[in-house]
């Protein structure tokens, strides 16, 4: 599968596409990886989606940006992050006070990461000739929190938001932004046995979005901090619907 290494929004970005040369994409997908993963961590989703819904690859461009922070000095070779997290405390000492602060606070470094991703989207729109309404924005874990933060601030679009194993942060501002944003199509998934970002942290985010009038397809599964096949199937089906024009208008040629 062709993979082009590019720079968009100041971020090293892996662009995966099987669209024939000279043909404009109908849909663009931007997925952000989780804390400690490499920029290439989610690339395999493209092939998995193509195996489930081959037609999706014919019109969809996939972009996988690498987060700006290098974690190799912290003993995580090739690991990157959108902002720093005290994982040891979050996993091993998740006191009620810590979890309440995690849910309420703006993560230090999140505004800078948001600016990077917003610039990536602006450059991608110009480079590939697509409107914001033809972008699917999402990610896994920390990457899905960043995607949510950006999506709620977009004046138009995205075509859909995909929150895989994410959680609620910046609650006060997100609640206000969600109440003002036109209804979004959202695919959200979470494992009931997730020990990193616990299940109630995900359902709190779901409830906030539903209360604000957004269309949330919430996929709960028996598992941990992961993306299981059931979620990939649901994601492939969503992308196929978007390409067929069932959401976000007719696919462009």
In short:
The protein is built from nine helices and ten strands.
Written account of the structure:
- By secondary structure, the chain is an alpha/beta fold.
- The protein has a single domain (3-244), classed as Rossmann fold (3-Layer(aba) Sandwich), CATH 3.40.50.
- 39% of the residues lie in helices and 21% in strands.
- The chain is built from 9 helices and 10 strands.
- Helix 7 links the parallel strand 8 and strand 9 (185-191).
- The longest helix is centred in the middle third of the chain and has 19 residues, at 110-128.
- The radius of gyration is 17 Å and the shape is globular.
- It starts with a strand and ends in a 9-residue tail after the last helix.
- Residues 246-253 have low confidence and may be disordered.
Count of folded domains: 1
Q: DSSP helix count?
A: 9
Mean pLDDT: 91
What's the CATH architecture name? 3-Layer(aba) Sandwich
- Widest β-sheet, arrangement of strands: 1-2-4-3-7-8-9-10
**H-E string:** EEEHHEEEHHHEHEHEHEH
β-strand percent reads 15-25%
Instruction: Determine Rg (CA atoms, Å).
Output: 17 Å
Q: What's the N-to-C terminus distance?
A: 22 Å
Q: Find the count of extended strands (DSSP E, 2+ residues).
A: 10
Largest sheet: 8 strands, mixed
The residue ranges in which pLDDT falls below 50 over 5 or more consecutive positions are 246-253
Give me the CATH superfamily.
Alpha/Beta hydrolase fold, catalytic domain
* CATH overall fold name: Rossmann fold
CATH domain class: Alpha Beta
Shape: globular
Helix content: 25-40%
Structural class: alpha/beta
């Amino acid at each position: 599968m062709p993979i082009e290494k590019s720079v968009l929004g100041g971020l090293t970005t892996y662009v995966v596409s099987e669209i024939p040369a000279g043909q404009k994409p109908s849909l663009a997908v931007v997925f952000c990886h989780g804390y400690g993963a490499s920029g290439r961590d989610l690339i395999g989703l493209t092939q998995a989606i193509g195996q489930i819904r081959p037609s999706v690859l014919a019109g969809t461009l996939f972009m996988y940006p690498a987060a700006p922070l290098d974690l190799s000095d912290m003993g995580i070779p090739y690991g990157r992050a959108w902002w720093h997290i005290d994982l040891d405390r979050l996993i091993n000492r998740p006191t009620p006070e810590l979890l309440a602060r995690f849910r309420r606070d703006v993560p230090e470094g999140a505004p800078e990461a948001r600016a990077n991703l917003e610039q990536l989207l602006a450059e991608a729109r110009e480079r590939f000739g697509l409107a914001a309404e033809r972008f699917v924005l999402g990610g896994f874990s920390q990457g899905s929190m960043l995607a949510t933060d950006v999506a709620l601030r977009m004046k138009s679009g995205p075509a859909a938001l995909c929150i895989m194993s994410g959680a609620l942060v910046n609650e006060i501002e997100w609640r206000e932004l969600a109440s003002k944003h036109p209804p979004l199509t959202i695919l959200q998934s979470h494992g009931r046995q997730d020990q990193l970002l616990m299940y109630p942290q995900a359902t709190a985010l779901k409830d906030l979005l539903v209360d604000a009038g957004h269309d949330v397809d919430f996929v709960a599964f028996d598992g941990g901090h992961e993306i299981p096949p059931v979620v990939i199937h649901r994601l492939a089906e969503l992308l196929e619907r978007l390409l067929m024009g069932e959401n976000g208008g007719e696919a462009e040629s």
